[in-house]
Amino acid sequence: MSLQPIIRALSHLVMALLPSLPALAQQPAAAIPSTGFAELDQYRASRISIYTDDFGQLARYRQANAALAPPAAGENRVVFLGDSITDYWKLSDYFPGKPYINRGIDGQTTPEMLVRFRQDVIALHPQVLVVLAGTNDIAGVTGRTVNEDIEANYASMAELARVHGIRMVFASLLPVNNYTHDAEESFALRPRDRILALNGWLKDYCSRNRLVYLDYFGALVDEQGMLKRALSDDGLHPTDAGYKIMAPLAEKAIQKALAETRAQ
After folding, report:
1. pTM score, two decimals?
2. SS3 string of the chain?
3. What is the distance between the alpha carbons of residues 253 and 169, in angstroms, rounded to a whole number?
4. pLDDT per residue over 107-165, tens digit each?
5. Tell me, what's the pLDDT at 14?
6. Which CATH superfamily is domain 38-263 in?
7. What's the CA gap between 136 and 42, in Å, rounded?
């Protein structure tokens, strides 16, 4: 078979496309695939530079970590690792005089926390680590995920902490609510059955591995199975009233972890 007709046809096709190539080159890059949730799509689009340039957001605490002195003799340093619920928590107001360090970052998921785990946890030499994470994973902030993937990231954190002699406290995911219009999408992105399943897994994992399980969920949930209306303005993040309930629970869990350390 002669290839000449095919070659002529391809040549004609190339010539026909040439005038449109400059216009194609000026087209914007493909957008992030839609999740079907307008606010989440907008939020993900606003974070493109983070996802491509500094996925774990190591830059957020790099200078603060460098300026932090090593723990003093007898200091029971505690690191709180998490997302916006931790990031917005002014620890010094709720734990005055305590050497508690906030390493929460708004919007983060567990894979992002693993990226910065060495810098923001291990290198700070805490006695105890309190992890509150997973709600953004469920919501798909950095992509769709299944509970097994989140559980694997929890386990990786625990294993890294164990190797470095850090006692681990895993906090339950908080309940959410849709009592306001602003909370509706956030609530829809975080199905209750997934939250309950992850909390059940965390509780069992802590029991099997001699870690401390911190149950925020039970203290913040209402009779409808949702975050109490008075404890959140947006259905996701605690208000001051919510943090006031969480703080003594966290302190009790930290003291339990420290006691177990001393008993070893």
Report:
1. 0.87
2. CCCHHHHHHHHHHHHHHHHHHHHHHCCCCCCCCCCCCHHHHHHHHHCHHHHHHCCCCCCCCHHHHHHCCCCCCCCCCEEEEECHHHHCCCHHHHCCCCCEEEEECCCCCHHHHHHCHHHHCHHHCCCEEEEECCHHHHHCCCCCCCHHHHHHHHHHHHHHHHHCCCEEEEECCCCCCCCCHHHHHHHHCCCHHHHHHHHHHHHHHHHHHCCEEECCHHHHECCCCCECHHHECCCCCECHHHHHHHHHHHHHHHHHHHHHHHHC
3. 7
4. 999 999 999 999 999 999 999 999 999 999 999 999 999 999 999 999 999 999 999 99
5. 38
6. SGNH hydrolase (3.40.50.1110)
7. 15
Residue with tokens 């567990």: 110
Q: Are 137 and 110 in contact (CB under 8 A)?
A: yes
Angle between helix axes 147-163 and 192-209 (nearest 10 degrees) is 30
